[in-house]
Amino acid sequence: MAKEAWMDNTHLRVTSEDGTVSYLYDVDAKGARTCTEIVERQSDGTTSSHLTARALDDLFWGGGNRR
Fold first, then answer.
1. β-pairing, 33-41 with 47-51?
2. HEC profile for 20-47?
C-alpha cells in the first residue's frame, strides 16, 4: 500500500510501497490532485526528480490556465 504524507495544506506526497518512487501532488480546495513532481530513488542512494507536463505548463503559463 502506498504511503501518503501531507507536506502542508495543499501538497501531498505519495510514496510507492517499496519506497522507490514518490509523487508530489498539488491538491485544490475540492480535493482534486494534480501531480507536479515525480522522484525516483536509485539503489545507490541517489535520486532523480522529474517535473510533470502540467508543472511545466504552470511554470511557463501560470497555474490559472487549467482546463
1. antiparallel
2. CEEEEEEECCCCCEEEEEEEEECCCCCE
Tell me which residue has cell 480546495: 29
For residues 61 and 23, give the distance between their C-alpha atoms in angstroms, rounded to a whole number. 22
What is this structure's pTM? Answer: 0.72
Distance CA 44, CA 50 (A): 18
Per residue in 8-22, is it b (16+ CB within 10 Å) or e — as a string? eeeebeebeeeeeeb
Cell of 31: 480535493
- pLDDT digits 0-9 by tens, 14-32: 999 999 999 999 999 999 9
